[in-house]
């Protein structure tokens, strides 16, 4: 008596007929991978393309918003370090992303985490203020396309031609585009040559409505910069080391939206402030929800200064910065 063989498991097959109509290959690849859980190799066989093509299709599906992958950020809020930081600095919320041993740029990973959180917290009718910098730009690129009715996104500092790669206007327009929101750019330079010019611009009828809108922000997202030689503030070309000397002499340690702070988070005023167009730190602190997205051990001291000054109500950071921040908190207890 012969024992019948078990049937072979079904394997993906190509659609019959080479000329048969088919779906967009990107859509097909996304569905087969994320919904049907086929491997990339199986999908390549089904669609009759290379595995490299499937990888490109899946990347394009995420980039264009066909596929939206979300992480529930409240789980990261519950991490021990996040809880400790929130308690120490009286934050409404803190998110700490795990260390990846330098496999990807820190600003990109923080931008993705910040984008997830921002998508969670923006609501219809919000006036969202946006600063600038590499991390804020990464955040602007990582937001999954969506629509938030009545949302306005406004640039909180003047424009900087020297920062074309991560300029205030680019960060603002990117975020507005991803949310399907109204974009309000501030049509003035961030820094002018003399205080009298700044005063005249603040009286310019074409600018007055935009400047008034800055005072209506309900939420704001910003990064924190340090003042070491490799910092963004120097790399942007907007200020020179000589121009920062009066601030450094007063103990400047970090910068938020072009405004300088000391180790306690107190604003440091100097010649540049009289020539700057945009929100002051005092005005930023009046905004109900202030989201700081910054990390890396090199920025820990600057982030700590921002938190000591209560300039943020929400912090998105990484494990390296969190460890440094918590270590600095523990030091007085060991004395």
Question: What descriptive keywords fit this protein?
Answer:
single chain; 335 residues; alpha/beta; Rossmann fold; seven-stranded parallel beta sheet; 15 helices; globular
Describe how the helices and strands are arranged.
Elements: H1 25-35, H2 40-47, H3 51-63, H4 73-77, H5 80-89, E1 93-97, H6 106-121, E2 127-130, H7 134-142, E3 152-155, H8 168-179, E4 182-184, H9 195-201, H10 208-214, E5 219-222, E6 225-226, H11 232-235, H12 241-249, E7 254-256, E8 259-261, E9 267-268, H13 281-284, E10 289-293, H14 300-308, E11 314-318, H15 319-334
Parallel strand pairs: 1-11, 2-3, 2-5, 3-4, 5-10, 10-11
Antiparallel strand pairs: 6-7, 7-8, 8-9
Helix pairs in contact: 1-2, 1-3, 2-3, 5-15, 6-7, 7-8, 14-15
Describe the structure.
The chain is an alpha/beta fold and 335 residues long. It folds into two domains: 25-63; 73-334, Rossmann fold (3-Layer(aba) Sandwich). It contains 15 helices and eleven strands. It has helices at 25-35, 40-47, 51-63, 73-77, 80-89, 106-121, 134-142, 168-179, 195-201, 208-214, 232-235, 241-249, 281-284, 300-308, 319-334; strands at residues 93-97, 127-130, 152-155, 182-184, 219-222, 225-226, 254-256, 259-261, 267-268, 289-293, 314-318. The strands form two sheets. A seven-stranded parallel sheet has the order 1-11-10-5-2-3-4, sandwiched between helices. Helix 2 packs across helix 3 (51-63), helix 6 (106-121) packs across helix 7 and helix 14 (300-308) packs across helix 15 (319-334). The protein is globular, with a radius of gyration of 24 Å.
